[in-house]
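Hi P.,

Sorry for the delay on this. The queue was packed all week, but I finally got your sequence through. Input first:
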Amino acid sequence: MLHPSYTEIMKKVNSDVEDGNEPVVNSRYSIVIATAKRARQLIGGEEALVKDYGQKPLSIAVEELYDGKIKIMPEEEKEEEEITVMDELDAQTETE
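Then the structure:
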């Protein structure tokens, strides 16, 4: 069994959301996707943000998410961040 549970992780991730706003995580699927992505990063060589004590990458990713070391960003913020990065790249190429 996964500890912490999906519901515990969802409550923790959504705890920063103000009343009236849409929660960041609405389903288990979001938790699974986020932790799998982070586990792949750990397998690829990124350093764990929590003490791993020999745990598997997925367990480390779950712990990082639960401890708030990594965040799940809403889609709108991801798109805005991507646009900002693209604008910065365009500005750099124009000055060269």
